[in-house]
Specification:
The chain is of the alpha+beta class. The chain is 47% helix and 15% strand. The strands form three sheets. A four-stranded antiparallel sheet has the order 2-3-7-6, with no helix packed on it. Pfam families: Acyl-CoA_dh_1, Acyl-CoA_dh_M, Acyl-CoA_dh_N.
Length: 371
C-alpha cells in the first residue's frame, strides 16, 4: 500500500513537473515540496513522539525509490527532514517536530574544496567566544543550502586533536529559508549537468556567530561520529534512489520499444532489444534485493557498514548502465530532451559520486574483508 500510494503521487504530481522543469534547469516548485510535507514524507524516520511517522529504513527506501523513479531531486529532498544525529533532547524537541512537518528543513555542510571524501581534512573553524561560536571557512556541494531553514554545519573545534577527526563538531546554523540573509553568510550556486530539481551551493562563513546551544549534542568533538551515524542510512537511500532511476529508464524503454516500429514491426520484437530489456530488469531486481536486505539489517540494529557500501556501489553502477541502455533503446530520440530517459541518465551519473564515491565504497568493502 505504501508503494502504491507513492507511485500514484509520482504519476499524478511528480512526473509532469519534472518533465516540464528539469530541461529548463528549474527547481521543483514550493507547491510540490508542500505536498511532500502533507504526505508526511519528511518525517518517515522521525519517531512518533516528535511528530514523525516512526517508520523503518525499509519503508523509507521504498518511498525513496518510487519518488526517484519520477525525479531524483524529489527522492532526495525528503532527506532534508528525517533526523538530527547526535542531538540533545532539547534540540530534538525544538527541531524534529518542525522537520517532520516540513516547517523546518535542513541542508548539510560537510564537504570543502580540499576535503571531499577525506572528511577529517576539513578546514572550516568554529572557535568558542564566550556564549557563542564563530564560524569561518568555505563549504561546497551543499544542495538546498539557500532553500533550507538551517545548515547543519561541521567544523573543526580542536585543530590539535589526534587523530584529526576527533576535533570536528556539528552546529545548527539557522537562516531564513530562501535566502542567505545572515551576517557573514553568503553563497554561490554551482552549475551542474543534472540534478536540476534543486540548487547546489558553495557557502562562505565569514565570522558567522551562533549561540553555544547550537552545538549538536552539546559536546565538542562528536561531529565525525554524527556524520558516520547517518552514512548507513544515506547509502541505503542512495541505493534506493539509484533503483528508482533505473526503473524509470526500464519502464520508459519498455513502452517506447513497443511503440517504435522499424522494418515493419515494433523494435520490441528484435532479440537485441529484448535482451537489453531482460538485462536491465535483472540488474534492477538484484540491486533492489540487496538494498532491501541491507535496510532490514539496519532496522534490526545489525552492523551493516560494508553491506551498505555494497548496496550503494552496486545500485549506482547499474543505474548508470541501465539508464545508458535506455538511451540506446530510444536511439537518437534518447539523446534529446523530448524523452525523460536523458534525465534519468544524467542524474544516475551523480549517484556514483555522492554519499561517498564508489571508490570509497570499494575501500570500505575491501577493508572489511582484509586486515
Amino acid at each position: 500500500m505504501l508503494r502504491d500510494e507513492t507511485k500514484r503521487f509520482v504519476e499524478n504530481e511528480v512526473l509532469s513537473e519534472a518533465s516540464e522543469r528539469d530541461p529548463n534547469e528549474e527547481p521543483m516548485s514550493n507547491e510540490l515540496i508542500n505536498q511532500l510535507a502533507e504526505m508526511g514524507f519528511f518525517g518517515i524516520l522521525i519517531d512518533e513522539e516528535y511528530g514523525g511517522l516512526g517508520m523503518d529504513l525499509k519503508s523509507y527506501a521504498v518511498i525513496a525509490e518510487e519518488l526517484s523513479r519520477g525525479w531524483l531531486s524529489v527522492g532526495s529532498i525528503i532527506a532534508r527532514g528525517q533526523s538530527l544525529s547526535g542531538a540533545t533532547e532539547e534540540q530534538k524537541e525544538k527541531y524534529l517536530s518542525k522537520m517532520a512537518s516540513g516547517e523546518m528543513l535542513k541542508s548539510i555542510a560537510i564537504s570543502e574544496p580540499s576535503a571531499g571524501s577525506d572528511v577529517a581534512n576539513m578546514q572550516t573553524r568554529a572557535e568558542r567566544d564566550g556564549d557563542e561560536y564563530v564560524l569561518n571557512g568555505q563549504k561546497t556541494w551543499i544542495t538546498f543550502a539557500k532553500g533550507s531553514d538551517f545548515i547543519l554545519t561541521y567544523a573543526v573545534t580542536d585543530p590539535d586533536a589526534e587523530p584529526a577527526y576527533r576535533g570536528i563538531s556539528g552546529f545548527i546554523v539557522e537562516k531564513p529559508a530562501g535566502t542567505f540573509d545572515r551576517d557573514g553568510l553568503s553563497g554561490q550556486p554551482i552549475d551542474k549537468i543534472g540534478y536540476h530539481g534543486w540548487k547546489t551551493w558553495e557557502v562562505n562563513f565569514d565570522d558567522v556567530r551562533i549561540s553555544a546551544d547550537k552545538l549538536v549534542g552539546g559536546e565538542e568533538g562528536k561531529g565525525f561520529y554524527q556524520i558516520m551515524d547517518f552514512f548507513e542510512e544515506g547509502r541505503v537511500h542512495t541505493a534506493a534512489r539509484s533503483v528508482g532511476l533505473a526503473r524509470g529508464a526500464l519502464e520508459d524503454s519498455l513502452q517506447y520499444a513497443q511503440e517504435r516500429a522499424q522494418f515493419g514491426e515494433p523494435i520490441s520484437e528484435f532479440q537485441a532489444i529484448r535482451f537489453k530489456l531482460a538485462d536491465m530488469a535483472t540488474q534492477i531486481e538484484a540491486a533492489r534485493a540487496l538494498m532491501l536486505l541491507v535496510a532490514d539489517a539496519v532496522d534490526s540494529d545489525e552492523q551493516a557498514n560494508a553491506e551498505a557500501a555494497m548496496a550503494k556501489l552496486f545500485a549506482s553502477d547499474i543505474a548508470e548502465q541501465v539508464t545508458s541502455e535506455g538511451i540506446q533503446i530510444h536511439g537518437g530520440y534518447g539523446y534529446t530532451t523530448d524523452f525523460d530517459v536523458e534525465r534519468y541518465w544524467r542524474d544516475a551519473r551523480l549517484t556514483r559520486i555522492f554519499e561517498g564515491t564508489n571508490e570509497i565504497q570499494k575501500r570500505i568493502i575491501a577493508d572489511s574483508l582484509l586486515p
